[in-house]
Structure formats: structure tokens, C-alpha cells
Known about the structure:
mainly alpha, two-stranded antiparallel ribbon, two-stranded parallel sheet, 56% helix, 4% strand, elongated
Amino acid sequence: MSVQFPLVSRCGKIERICEESLGKSFTTALEDFPGGPDTFLIAVKFCYGMRAELTPRNIVNVSCAADYLEMTDEYGEDNLLSKSESFLHKNVLRNWKDCILALQSCDPFTPRAEKLQIVSKCLNALSMMVCTDPSLFGWPMMMYGRLQSPGGSILWNGINTGARIRSTESDWWFEDISYLSVGLFEKLIHTMETRGIRPESLVGAIMYYARKYLPGLGRWQSGQSGKTRTVASFSLTPAAVDQKVLLEAIEKLLPEKKGKSFCRFLLGLLRVALILGVKQACKDSLERRIGMQLEMATLDALLIPTYSDSDTLYDTDCMERIVHHFMTSESRVTSFSPSLDLETSPSSEPLRKVAKLMDNYIAEVASDVNLKPMKIRSLADALPESSRPLHDGLYRALDIYFKAHPWLSEREKEELCNVIDYQKLSIDACAHASQNERLPLRIVLQVLFFEQMQLRTALAGCLHVLDTESAPAGHMMVPADVAGQIVQRDGWATVVRENQVLKVDMENMRSRVGELEEEFGKIKQEMKRVTKSHSSLSSPRMVARKIGCKLLPRSSDAEPDTIDSTGPTPRASIEQPRSSRHSRHRKSFSLF
């Protein structure tokens, strides 16, 4: 009894067991004792007055064991339960690293730790430290003590460890909390949310945690490398995580926000969810979240492979459901803070962005030989006609599909081509379609018809504009709708400008031809006067000089000119040998 006396006097549970034995010798087993033999040894040492060492790693075990043994102050002043609570408040809850270690040790007996409010106290302490500006109170430097080298490294027993103090970035705590189990991590995020921590910070922590325990997620997160370990994490061990449970928990933790990086993360989660085979409700929720911000997605992230027994390469059914969520979502989610790399879109732009993205998606999956024509049709019809100002993207996608499926019948091709509005094709697309041998003949004729009609409309509008420009200023009032009818698309604007330039060039050429005709008439009249004149031989020279002609001199006339002139001219010396006696009475002239 003397051996059992210290335990009986300090432990209410053991005292009650002894009283029930009525003084007889007995053997009992302490079932479900928290912490095992090591923790029981600490309790025994405390009861016998021996030194019992309390640390952040065993404080939760000791507290739960003291509660299990009912070692309250009712069975002795400063009993083990009150001692452990005092150590928790004075040493653990004031230090980031120790608080993480204590919280991590709560996993084996979370219900009893929650009953003693150890979990809630640790969660609140961590949330307060995250809310606190590290530059004001030295966080997280307090966890390393005040022993630092002049260069900023941490000292241990006066020895430079080489470890650097963590910077005061807003994500300094992501790595440390990633060592918690899924349940504790989920509770910590909820506690931080009630404390008013910014949603982008919480999402950053969730994304970091997910990438750490879902290896397949990192393949689709380009540029998102893992953080370096903090000094606090050197003594932590990673948590054992069930990936299905983790993914379903993370989906519930994510806020209703949107952003480019966040949308890419959601698409990565959806890929992993399809691989792991999580609950259908989780997959539906992820598809809905993606659909509400589909305009921020990228093509490579949307190309989700088929992980089922389907023959197609890509999961087009999933894409169709996402587009359906985009069209039916009534409330638009808000964006994250603009301080991040998350951009928003004007309210009028998302539909056109999604239409362009959808056209590129169809063009990418069109090369799959197992993709049925009806699936292409349903993907193209998933968005309203008003979402596409031009149908060049649809035409390109169908052309790729026809090239990859040469065995399609003319009827199947015509049914697919009905999704295209040929009046919304650009000039380049019309020119390509009119010479495309893969299109049915009826479709080619239809393209040619619309091309000619558009060209005629554009030319008529061009001439109308030129006529109004040449009219007086008082008659140059052109209605606003006429300009919209003239240039209906960007492609036809080029045709209008080229025709305007051609018409100006033709007007200049016409005026020049008129000037030349008038000048030729004057020359013709002067020639008639020369032939009718019976004046002296010199008279033709005078006439020629008037009209810009020059007569070739005769040999008889060349000599007096040479004698009377002050010097021979080059022209005279060249023309002199050409004169002959046979051409003495012949007059020649040339027009310059």
C-alpha cells in the first residue's frame, strides 16, 4: 500500500479503483491510456516527487493523461493537470514552433484534447500570430530566441548553425502548418477565417498544402515551386494523409472567389479528383466553381484527358458541363485582391473570351479520330450565337475535324457546317473556304454567294462615301447607320480603302489624259498652218520654233551659220556631216 499511496493520493481514478477492490489484491488495466507507458512514467515520477520534464512534444500527452487519471487539484495542490495547463500557457502558446509541435501531437487523442480545449487554444494562438505583423513583434523570430549572429544566422549554444531567419513575407507560415493533419489543418483554416485573415492568404495556404500532399497537382501548376523549409519545420514530421479525404476537405475549404491562378488550381484539382475517383458531389462542385470563372481559364488547363473507359482522348463531357455552369450561373463571384497576379475581366467580355476559348478547344480535340460529329455539334452549340462576332474559329475547328475524319459523308459534313454563319466569316476565311476541297459543294457555293454579296455591299458603300465627299459641304451629311453598313467587319474595311485609292488614281489619270489630248490638238492646228503657208524657207523654222520643233539644217545654210557664229557648237558639228547634196531641197524636223 505504501507503494500505491502516492498514486492513490494524486490520482482520482486509481483511488476509485482501490476503493472498489475493498482492500483485496487486484490487477487492473488502464485501457486507452493516452500516451502509452512513457506518459504514464511521467505521471508516476510526478506523483513520487521526481523530476518530470515537460516539453512541447509531450505536453498534450501529459495533459490528456492527467485528465484520464483525474489528477486535479482536488487530489493535491498543484497537481499534474494544473501544472501542464500552466506550462501550456506560459511556454507553448507564446511560441510559434512549440505551438505547431503541440498541435501536431493532438492527433492520436483529438477528442480528449478538444475536451481540455488544448486544440482550440493552439488554433487561436496560431491565428493570432498569423494576424500579427512579424516586423512589429519579431515574429517568427521569437521561436528561435535572441541568440543571433551579426549576419542574422541562428546560434545554437553559441555555434553558428547557418540557418537564416525567416523573412517577413505574408506566406512565411505556409510551410509550418502544412505538417498538420487534414482535420487539424481544416480547423485551423476555419479559425483563421473567423479571425478575419484575408481570403487570398487562406487560399495560398490551402494551395500550398494541396500541392504538398497531391503530387499530381504540381504538373499543372507551372511556376508554382514549393517553398523552402523554415527552421521550425526541421523538427516536424509530415502528416499521413489520405488523398481522397484531403481533396474533398480542400474543396469545402475553398472560398467563392475567382482569379487566373485560382482557376488553374481548380482545374488541377479536378484532374486529380477524376484520377482518384472522389465522390460525385466533390467533382460537381469543382466543375461549378470552374464554370463560374471560365473566362480566366487557359486552353492547356482545360484539356483534361479521359480517365474512364471512353474511347476519346479528352473528357469533352466534362468540358460541356463546365460551359453549362458558365451559362447558368446567375451570381458572379468576386475577384481576389488586385495585389495578386489575379486579374478580372469587364462584365461584357467574359462571354466572348469563353467563345474564343471554346473554338480553340474544339480545334484542339478535333484531331481525335474517335470523336463523334454530334459531340462537335453539341460543343459548338453550347454557347449562344451572339457570343461569336466572327466564326473564323469555328470554321478552323471544323476544317481540322474534316481533315482528321476523311470518311465522313457529305450529309454529316453539311450538318456540321450548319453551325457556321457564313456572313460572319472574314475575307481570308471566305477565300480559304471557297477553295477548300474538304467542304461539301453546296457549302462552297454558299460561301461564294455570301462573299460576292458582301463585296458588292462594300463597294457600293465605298462609292457612296466618295460621292458624298465630292459633293458640296452643305450636302455631306451622311447618316450614322450608313457607315455601319459600309464596313460590317474588319476584313471589308480593307477592300473599301483599296477601292478609294483606286478611284482617286483613276481620276488623276483621266485628267492627265485630257490635258494630253488638248495639247495634241494645238500641235495639230499648228501643223495645218505650216502646210498651208507659202512663205519663205525660213518661215517653217519660225513655225517649228513656236511649236517646240527643231529643223535639221541644210548644207548650204550650215556654212554661213558657222562663219557668223562666234564659235562652232557641238550640235552644228555633229549635224554638218549628215547633210548631203541630194537633200538640199529637203527639210527635216524633229519634235522634242
